[in-house]
Amino acid sequence: MDTSVRIAIERQNPWWQNQSFPTGIPHLSRYPDIDLYLSLREVLVLLGARRIGKSTLLYQIIADMIQKTVQPKSILYLNLDEPILNAHAQEPGFLMDIIERYRIEHHGLSCVCMDEVQLCPHWASTVKIIYDTIPDIKLITTGSTSQVIEHEMSLRLSGRYLPVRIYPLNFSEFLTFIGKENPSTVEKNVLMMQFLRYGGFPRIVLEENEKVKDVLLRQYYETIYLKDILIPRTIRSTQDLISLLYICLSQVGNLVSFHRLAGSLKISADTVKEYIGYAEDAYLLHLIRKFDYYDKNQQSN
C-alpha cells in the first residue's frame, strides 16, 4: 500500500488515535430504521443528495458504536471522494486490499464504512465479497446517485442490503438546529419564510450570513449538476439540460407538464422525461405524479 494512501486512511479514521472527530448536531433519532438495520446482517445503505449530511450521520453512527464499547480500531471508514483514494478507483482489488490489510493489522474489523461509493466502479463487487465471506463485518455505505447505486445493488447485492434515504431537514429539525424549538407565532412565520428560501441543508441552516448561504447553495447545485448528472452521462445538449433544470427549479410546488416543457424548449417530451430522470437520480428534483386511479393516466400526466 502506498504511503500516501495509508496516510489518507489514517487521517480519515481519527478515532484510532483517540482523537476527536466532528459528529455535528445529534440527528440519528430522525432515522429509527438506522438503529434497527445496524443490528442486522444486511448492508446498510444511506442514500441522499450531496451535502445533505450522510457523512455526519456516519460519524454519529461510529461515535455511537464506540460509546457502546466497540473497539475504535475495529471500525474502518473510507471516504472515496478523497483524491488519493479516488486515483485508485479503477483498480478492481484496491478496496479489498485496503480492508484485508487493516483487518490483519487490527486483528479483525467490526465495521467498514464506505462513503460516496458511486465514485468507485468496483464497490458493489467488493461489498458482495465481504458480505459473503466475512460475516463478522458490518457494512455501511453511502451514495449520492440513486440510479447508479440502486442498479448495482439490485444486480449484485439482491437480498443483501437495506436502504435508508436521507432527506434535508424538515421545519421542526430546522428550528432545533438554530436553537429555536419554541418560537412565538410571529417569529415562527419569519423563520418559515427563511426555511422556504434557503431549504434544509445543514451547513446552510447553520450559516448566518445570507450572502454566504447564496454562494454555498449555488456551489451545491453546480456540484450536483456536474458530478452526478453531467459527467457520468453523455448529454446531447447541455444547454437544453441547464434550461430545463432552471425552469423546474423555478416551478417548485407547481404543476408541470412534460409536453409543455418540451414545447417551450423545442425538444421532445421523451428528452424532457430523460433529463428530469437524471435530476431525480441526483436528488436535485422530486416529482409527485398527479393522482389518478388509472396508472396509465398517472404516467401521461
How would you concisely characterize the structure shown here?
The protein is of the alpha/beta class.
Molecular structure report:
A five-stranded parallel β-sheet has the order 2-3-4-1-5, with helices on both faces. Helix 13 crosses helix 14 (269-281). The model has no long low-confidence stretch (mean pLDDT 91). The relative contact order is 0.11. The chain contains 15 helices and five strands. It is globular. 51% of the residues lie in helices and 9% in strands.
Strand order of the largest sheet: 2-3-4-1-5
What best-fitting shape do the alpha-carbon axes yield?
A: globular
In the predicted model, the low-confidence regions spanning at least 5 consecutive residues are: none
Order of helices and strands: HHEHEHHEHEHEHHHHHHHH
Whole-number mean pLDDT: 91
Question: Which structural class matches the secondary elements?
Answer: alpha/beta
- Helical content stands at 40-55%
User: Main sheet?
Assistant: 5 strands, parallel
Strand fraction: 5-15%
Number of helical runs?
15
Radius of gyration: 21 Å
Total strand segments: 5
Could you give the distance between the termini?
54 Å
